[in-house]
């Protein structure tokens, strides 16, 4: 996962938790605007979310930053 996406994921999760509490869920769509202006980045996030980590559509926001912090091995 590229660093800019990693930072965005952490930022969005922290903001959602601050606004709605630790039980709030997120999907990978939360990291993007409603307009699909970067399909390559969206697919990178979807691949990381679905194929790499096999996450459900919605996951607890507090779980995601720890996963994002893990560096995939080449």
From TrEMBL:
| A Pfam family reported for this protein in Swiss-Prot or TrEMBL | DUF6500
The superkingdom of the source organism is Bacteria
InterPro entries on file: DUF6500
Protein name stated in the entry: Msl2237 protein
Organism phylogeny? Bacteria, Pseudomonadati, Pseudomonadota, Gammaproteobacteria, Oceanospirillales
